[in-house]
Amino acid sequence: MKLTRYLALPFAFALAMTASLASADDAAKPAAEKPTEDSTVAAEAGGGAAQPEHAAILKEAKPFAGMFKAWQKEQKLFVELSPADYNNEYIVLISIARGIGQRPLLGGYSWGFGDDWIWKFRKIGDTVHVIRRNVRFKANKGTPEATAVQFAYSDSVLFALPVVSKGPGGGDLVDFTQVFMGDLPQISQVLPGFMFSPQKSYWESIKAFDGNMELTVAATYQSGGSIELDSVADSRGVTINVHYSISKLPSTGYEPRLADDRVGYFLTVVKDYSDKTDREQFVRYVNRWHLEKPPGAGDGPTPPKEPIIFWIEKTVPFAYRKPIREGIEEWNKAFEKAGWLNAIEVRQQPDDADWDPEDIRYNTFRWITSDAGFAMGPSRVNPYTGQILDADIIFDADFLKFWKSEFETLEPKTASQMLGQPTGETLQLSGASLRMLGLGNHSDCALSNGMAHQMAYGATALVAQAEGDPAKSAAEQERLIMQGLKEVTMHEVGHTLGLRHNFKASKLYGLKDLNDPEKVRETGLVASVMDYSPVNIVPKDWKQGDYYTTTIGPYDYWAIEYGYKDLPGPTAGERGELNKIASRSGEPALTYATDEDTVPSDPDPDSNRFDLGNDSLEYARVQAQLVKELMPGLVERMSKEGDDYTQVRRAFNVLLAQHGQAMAFAARNVGGLHTSRSHKGDKDAKPPVTPVDAKKQRDTLELLQKEVFAADAYNYPPEIYAFLASTNWRHWGSNSTNRKDFPFHDFILMWQTRTLDGMISSTNLQRIADTEAKTPPDQDVLTNAELLERLSDSIFSELDTVKEGEFTARKPAISSLRRNLQRSMLERLANFAMGRATVPNDVRAIAYAELSSLKDGAAKLLGGGVKLDPYSRAHLEEMRRTIEKVEEASLTLARP
């Protein structure tokens, strides 16, 4: 696969540049009369004393003609560089043609994010340097700034290769073997304990074309065998087919387009010391394709001279080709509004096609089977201009296998994925390796991580809504899958067009409106397919609309207009037109926030992954209602005669996770700030930062008290727990659980503390303190004092509500779920009070006061006339002693 935001590494470069083997006279001769490289070398080899040195070197070597003259002789690769080749620049990319079923070493994966690699050759004596160009800094030629840039920044010399002789064409014959028969991709950094083995590696294929050269090395990495990988037969020798693509950097007359932070595009950024328009001298270009009007084109929409062509690979199952084709072609609606007819063409790869999907000349939609459950849409980009040169979309077949074993016992990492927080987990990667590959950063698309959960949630609901009708359930699940497949296709195609995520797009409609076919017919369910959209499931008394959006949204039209509308060059007039387009950012349907705006510490509760509707409280209430509706009868619906009960456990986990996910989204209102990217003068623009309404924050706390912190918040039918069975299979590829029974307390506490920690994180408490100080006294805000008091009153409510009665271990005054939650909250208050957390000083004082009040409440309940059960009494005694220890520790704090 090929790509742009995924780090392109240097390697197969040497092969990409060459002159044609045949002269014009040769081209006129019949094929049988034309001299071949083999015949030339053979003739020279038999001539005696006049035999040139290259004849012996290349004897019996296999020739390749394309950008370069190249020869393969056993495991050696020779390339002849002509004088003209030293003046060219080449773009070099790496991808995994055949992987090992372990992320990131998956077939079709492009290798990393960042600037795509530009190589140049430089001859020094009898050595050729392979140089990676530094493309980030520039200045106008002939200026003092250009001289300063030359002194400040340098290129990188990656290889020094010997010139072994003059080649048959008179150029330099260079041995490029060490470039590719080595660990150029640095795969050993993501396979700890493995090293590249040149003796076990070989050339899988070499293909030469006029504009590019494609090389594939069957690269074997060896280890001591102590590491076991389920997808590898023997870890002492792991073979990964690494594909290298080299092409001459094109000169197409492409005009870069300046970027705008109100519209979400991937960027090519250059620091231009001659530029005076930006205070920091950064020039930012959007990444986009080169579309040109044909000669004589009128003012209306016209087809481009060369459309963007996507090939659906022959590996895509027949049943899925239609929604995939429709998902790709859907973007033509936006291009037509921007002035282009049929800007995108979709073609089916013939079964007898002999070209490789990695070939730079083809943009492909690939279907692979690696059991990794992912989809992505990368592209490769000219790092000088932002021009997209080619792109691919990869779907893993496991993406649609949504009843996964990981749902049997959800761990924190899985919960993070369900909240749309990429974990960056791939094999056992170090932080440095992750940065090298670009995994887990803002450019990484993790849509499919959460889609499996959403598909499973949708399937659970559809079985219930079918009311025992298998045919109806199957039909609706088919519609769910096809709509989900089209939606993800549209999303990934958007990436290949240059678009970034927009995590505010799901706020277009309220939940009732987005299930009204009349309102969503033109716009779809969301403002942009570049969001991570959850499945749209409604309660049984609602009318069900589409499960996923079926068309691109208003933001998508706007973004394509900005990036692709035909405008007259990079002039002041174009900048004015671009600003006119971007100045619509204040419209509700065009609001934009992306990856770096949507990490857990970010303040805007409207920017989430996998939320839906314009009111997070409504969404949370509806999800809570749905879970309550779906729990009764779950065992009967999710297990058929003769089945085991693993499906029941997975469905139960999925439902609880959906509930916890929605509550965590709602909790972001507490201390939240609505953000805006609009510029001064934009119509209907909002300020960059606006605090969430104080009433909405209090309404959120009331909802969470009822649905997350209350004693009966997770009061599901007790008989269900006997049927939450884990798998009995134990073999490679299976995920065994630590417990045969369901870890009820751990699971519930995980979701409770995720919701709690979001509200009382150090960052959020500091934000609330700042909002208090910045808001005039006559305006209402939720303060840290009120927040901690309300949370304490809610979580420790038994201290006030338990006034009489007799309790037993089976009917305790404080339930086990509440005792766990209270211990967790007590630990956090103690850390605040003792200065173990970076919180405002006022929060430390308030936490200390809350602890003192809780100690008094515990002592009062212990000393009252209530006959407490042993669990509750021990819990209260522990609480009282813990707080006393905190009070004693306050005397020796490191800071006042």
Q: What features would you highlight for this structure?
A:
896 residues, alpha+beta, 12-stranded antiparallel β-sheet, 6-stranded mixed β-sheet, 25 helices, 23 strands, globular, disordered N terminus
Notes on the protein architecture:
By secondary structure, the chain is α+β, with helices and mostly antiparallel strands. 33% of the residues lie in helices and 15% in strands. It has 25 helices and 23 strands. The strands form 4 sheets. Strands 1, 2, 3, 4, 5, 6, 8, 9, 10, 11, 12 and 13 form a 12-stranded antiparallel sheet that branches. Strands 16, 17, 18, 19, 20 and 21 form a 6-stranded mixed sheet that branches. Strand 1 and strand 2 form a beta hairpin. Helix 19 packs parallel to helix 23 and helix 23 packs parallel to helix 25. The N terminus is likely disordered.
Average pLDDT for all residues: 86
Share of helix among residues? 25-40%
Structural class: alpha+beta
The number of helical segments is 25
* Span of the ends, CA to CA: 58 Å
Sequence-ordered SSE layout with sheet pairings:
Blueprint: H1 24-28, H2 37-45, H3 53-57, E1 62-65, E2 69-73, E3 76-81, E4 90-98, E5 117-124, E6 127-132, E7 137-138, H4 144-152, E8 156-166, E9 172-175, H5 177-180, E10 195-196, E11 202-208, E12 212-222, E13 238-248, E14 267-272, E15 282-286, E16 308-312, H6 318-329, H7 332-337, E17 344-348, E18 363-368, E19 375-376, E20 379-381, E21 388-396, H8 412-418, H9 431-437, H10 447-465, H11 470-496, H12 517-520, H13 554-564, H14 572-582, H15 616-630, H16 634-638, H17 646-667, E22 673-675, E23 689-691, H18 694-709, H19 744-759, H20 762-774, H21 784-795, H22 798-801, H23 816-833, H24 841-863, H25 870-889
Parallel strand pairs: 7-14, 16-17, 16-18, 18-21
Antiparallel strand pairs: 1-2, 2-3, 3-9, 4-5, 4-13, 5-6, 6-8, 8-9, 10-12, 11-12, 12-13, 14-15, 19-21, 20-21, 22-23
Helix pairs in contact: 6-11, 10-11, 10-17, 15-17, 17-18, 17-19, 19-23, 21-24, 23-24, 23-25, 24-25
